[in-house]
Amino acid sequence: MSNDRQTLQAAHQLLSQLGITPEDLLRTSDAANVPTFREFIQQVQEAVSPATVRAYRPYWNRVEECWGDRAITEPTALEIRKLSETYRRTTVARRNSRNGRGATENLIAAIRCIYKHAQDDGFIKPADNPAARVPKPRRLPSTRRAIPDRQLSEIIRVASTTGNDPDLDALLIRFHIETACRRGGALGLRLQDLDDENYCVQLREKDDTVRWQPISRSLLRAIRDHTATRAPADVTGADQVFRYQNGHPITGRRYDHLWERIGSHLPWVAGEGITAHWLRHTTLTWVERNFGYAVAHAYAGHTDNTTQTGATTTYIRASLEEVAQAVAALTGEPHPLCLQADNVSSDSLR
């Protein structure tokens, strides 16, 4: 026993002479198991959703270029600030850019995602998370707005009369105007998401939200005609709805080409950076003005977040039938869910 104590004392004395603490030895042992950014980003990619990968992949590429072979525990908060500032200065300046604020915000969010998983796996402690000590730029109010009727008509005209597939582009524009869905909602629409009885489509959008959205009978028929002429013979209900003339499903690139083409014909579209999301703003603004906040909230497919909207939204949720009434007014076509709502309303008054 005394020999063990003497050996331990000798070891402490030797470490003291070398300027090394027992904690240093533990950190050295742990450091050997810490992955590099290149290794860990690959693991994170496999653990998050495809939408997250699409959003963060450009920024993770930048991190790999700069720090790919470094251990994820090495960079400091100052280094993350420097990287984000360098990225901000080198981003492509567009007419609607805001001095690189969005790029900086997204880069920091992408780095925080890495460190959140590193923290969950025990590679770093919450107090040692350098990304948490780097604030994002304050988000400025969105420049998006409702598009006036005259300009909206011009967008529809260009989309439906130019390009190599005006039928597809006109249908996409109409779908976004009528449903106010995000781009991902259209790209993710499947054949099994079409409800021919209730004139609805099922939309799956960001944050894994799923909702039924009423549409007009004529739009539903146009979608059916589109799939009947373009979907291959072996198509199943789980296959994508919107397709090119060769039968292949469209991707986000179709939107890029569509708005680039519209911008070449309408300079104000390119100047303001108008995209499909502006159509969402346009429809929801109209719905809110004519049917109130609760219906617009439901029409948008927003989830109840009491920290942003207040607890009142929990009690004033609009029904699917009320959304259908807004669709009927927007399109000028009767909707079967409106008739059901009228019957319920009449019965409740008796």
UniProtKB/TrEMBL annotation:
Gene Ontology MF: a single term: DNA binding
GO BP: DNA integration; DNA recombination
Top-level lineage group: Bacteria
CDD domains: DNA_BRE_C
Keyword annotations of the record: DNA recombination, DNA-binding
Residue ranges of domain Tyr recombinase in the record: 142-328
InterPro entries, sorted: DNA_brk_join_enz, Integrase-like_cat_sf, Integrase_catalytic, Integrase_recombinase_N, Tyrosine_recombinase_XerCD
SUPFAM superfamilies associated with the record: DNA breaking-rejoining enzymes
Transmembrane segments: none
Signal peptide positions (record): none
Family, similarity comment: Belongs to the 'phage' integrase family.
Protein name: Tyrosine-type recombinase/integrase
Organism: Nocardia uniformis
